[in-house]
Amino acid sequence: MNFNLENDIPNDPLITKINIFNYLGLDLGKTQDYSVLTHLKAFQIHKYEKDYDEKIIYRSDMGQDPIDFYEPIRYRLQNCHRWELGTSYNTVVDDIINLLKLPYFKQNSTPLIIDATGVGSAVFDIFKSKNLFPIAITITSGNSMGENDIGYTVPKQDLLDNMSIIVNQERLKINNKIQDKKIIIGELQSFEKTINKRGNISLEAENKSKDDIVLSISYALWYAHRQLKQSQTSIKVDDSFNFGYYGIL
């Protein structure tokens, strides 16, 4: 796997602090499907507030104590790797273990989130046998999230709604240097939530064979959102922030 691990930081004088978090999402393919690993970066940005004239706003008329706040969490799809069809799960596991040994991921304690539904349960056991313990998401048709011995049970609708909100708010961008960028954009654009006559939600793209990247992203986004949202609940949020310098969707 050839991953771009550069840490480019935006040059914005209003930014006072940036916390960067890394997440890996793994969607496991069956016999005729690809296995895909996506690397998601989350940016927690703390900055000064400005007025319509682009001037910093202060709490005091004396020009002291500037007002600062956290922006909504922004995400960037940094890397994406799709294994060849027919690649064994043991090979997938070994490749990821080697990736996580890199200092970049090791020092950041990067979580790996996998789909434990179906074949994922057996692959989780392979990881565990090699002393790596991913965060497992078991997709359900229920209405509420739960926890189990290996991670979480998550309704399909929660995964879809979380990703839909983030994408619609333009808080998910794609690294301009990522391989197969056009394929990724096409998959995101074709992805849709479909509901059959019985009311069951289908988590798939228009072309069922091309939803692996989106699913992989959705796992990482769901866990990142759950992990990071608690740190900003009491801080003002400004949804108007333009995140364009992190890449183009």
Structural write-up:
This protein is an alpha/beta fold. The protein has a single domain (15-234), classed as Nucleotidyltransferase, domain 5, CATH 3.30.420. 27% of the residues lie in helices and 27% in strands. The chain has six helices and eleven strands. It has helices at 89-100, 103-106, 120-129, 156-168, 181-190, 212-228, and strands at residues 15-27, 36-48, 68-70, 74-82, 112-115, 135-140, 146-147, 151-155, 172-174, 191-195, 201-205. The strands form two sheets. Strands 1, 2, 3, 4, 5, 6, 7, 8 and 9 form a nine-stranded mixed sheet that branches. It has a two-stranded antiparallel ribbon with strand order 10-11. Helix 4 packs across helix 6. The two termini are 23 Å apart. Residues 194-203 and 232-249 have low confidence and may be disordered.
Number of DSSP-assigned strands: 11
Return the average pLDDT rounded to an integer.
76
Strand content: 25-35%
- Helix % is 25-40%
What is the CATH class? Alpha Beta
Number of alpha- plus pi-helical segments = 6
Which runs of at least 5 residues are low in confidence (pLDDT < 50)?
194-203, 232-249
Cα-based radius of gyration, to the nearest Å: 19 Å
Distance between the termini: 23 Å
Question: What is the second-level CATH architecture?
Answer: 2-Layer Sandwich
The main pleated sheet reads as: 9 strands, mixed
Could you spell the SSE succession in H and E letters?
EEEEHHEHEEEHEHEEH
